[in-house]
Design brief:
Blueprint: E1 2-4, H1 36-40, E2 49-52, E3 59-61, E4 71-73, E5 76-77, H2 101-105, E6 106-109, H3 113-121, E7 131-133, H4 144-147, H5 149-159, E8 164-168, H6 177-185, E9 189-194, H7 200-206, H8 213-225, E10 230-237, H9 246-256, E11 260-265, H10 272-283, H11 288-298, H12 310-313, H13 317-332
Parallel strand pairs: 2-6, 4-7, 7-8, 8-9, 9-10, 10-11
Antiparallel strand pairs: 1-2, 3-4, 5-6
Helix pairs in contact: 3-5, 8-9, 9-13
Length: 360
């Protein structure tokens, strides 16, 4: 079952193509709307569809040594925020869809997520460790306002006193403060909000459907005032486009009450690199060469470095300068490095019992 929403601004400049799985680029379906640009010169509308997905399990596992969690939940596939740099774009190829416009417009929702989670947490073999939300696609992208799948997942975790880490670039997360604040009082939750640029024009270009940077900063303040451990990620930092804002973002994050500020240099895995290059040529043609040259200096002369640890930090003089700038800015604005480490309790966990997941 698919539902269609109104036309919106998109992030990529082309649909793109996956070559790893031999999948063809998605073609227009012949509808007259697809040909409207040829009829009267107007661009064809690009609409969003949401398809229900019925997975058998909901917890994803990983063994990456540079990721601070081993389990996560992704309530949605694809993401309407449309961030040009999103490393999750290539995952849409598993659905015979492109990492370009398809990733932003052909979304999948998992309405059974909460029920599946209850079942997995109730298994005798389950061992508690922090659950991550928002590791692949954003759990608070626009469609969460209607589907509320993320909220259902948090309700289950809260009822079980299960630790949780939320990562998002949306202030919509504040809508679940009634669930998150009590968890924070027990030492069960931390929230990380991504802010890549304070310039609304830049932000709209690199992540066109994500909320305004000021709304995200306001969300940081709301959580800090409510006693929720909240952090700001400048993820990613794009050379020659957003790196000039490092100090300003750290200052604003500290003023809003963030416990820590971190960063990740831009990553361009697989099909993301050609999409990113096309986007640069469209929006920043005067500096496209400089941007890519700096990225390659970070990534051993390539567009991307998939190596553990180095993929999150980058290497070389530019990466070292970036780390130094962050360190100086954090010290200047009083961010205690010891408080930056998110420590959550696992000893309070109580597995759900019974067919409906009641707690005893």
């Amino acid at each position: 079952m698919a539902q269609v929403s109104k036309r919106v601004v998109r992030g990529v400049t082309l649909n793109g193509e996956s070559k790893r799985f031999g999948l063809p680029q998605t073609e227009a379906d012949g509808d007259w709307l697809d040909m409207r640009d040829e009829i009267d010169g107007r661009p064809a509308p690009v609409r969003t569809t949401v398809t229900i997905e019925r997975p058998k399990t909901i917890i994803s596992r990983n063994t990456s040594p540079d990721v601070p969690f081993d389990r996560s939940i992704n309530p949605y596939r694809g993401c309407e925020h449309g961030c040009i740099y999103c490393f999750a774009r290539p995952s849409h190829a598993f659905h015979d869809l492109s990492p370009g416009l398809d990733f932003e417009t052909k979304l999948f929702a998992k309405p059974d997520a909460a029920d599946l989670l209850r079942g997995e947490l109730a298994k005798p073999s389950y061992r508690c460790a922090p659950m991550a939300l928002g590791t692949n696609t954003d759990p608070y992208q626009p469609i969460e306002g209607k589907w509320r799948i993320t909220r259902g997942v948090i309700e289950v975790l809260a009822a079980c006193d299960h630790p949780l880490v939320i990562t998002t670039k949306s202030d919509r997360v504040v809508r679940d403060l009634d669930l998150i604040a009590p968890m924070a009082a027990k030492g069960l939750v931390g929230v990380a909000i991504s802010i890549t640029s304070l310039d609304p024009k830049i932000a709209m270009t690199i992540e066109p459907r994500a909320p305004h940077p000021e709304k995200r900063l306001a969300a940081v303040r709301r959580f800090a005032d409510a006693g929720v451990p909240v952090y700001v990620n400048m993820a990613p930092v794009i050379p020659a486009i957003t790196d000039n804002e490092v100090e300003a973002i750290v200052e604003r994050a500290a003023a809003a009450g963030a416990r820590g500020v971190s960063f990740i240099p831009v990553r361009l895995p697989w099909e993301v690199a050609p999409l990113f290059r096309a986007w640069l040529d469209e929006h920043f043609p005067e500096r496209a060469g400089k941007v890519m040259a700096t990225i390659q200096s970070l990534r051993g002369g390539k567009d991307n470095d998939p190596g553990f640890f180095s993929r999150m930090r980058g290497e070389g003089p530019w990466a070292e300068l970036l780390r130094t700038r962050f360190l100086i800015a954090r010290r200047k604005h009083g961010i205690d490095q010891n408080r930056e480490k998110m420590q959550l309790r696992c000893d309070l966990f109580r597995p759900p019992r019974g067919p409906q997941g009641e707690l005893f």
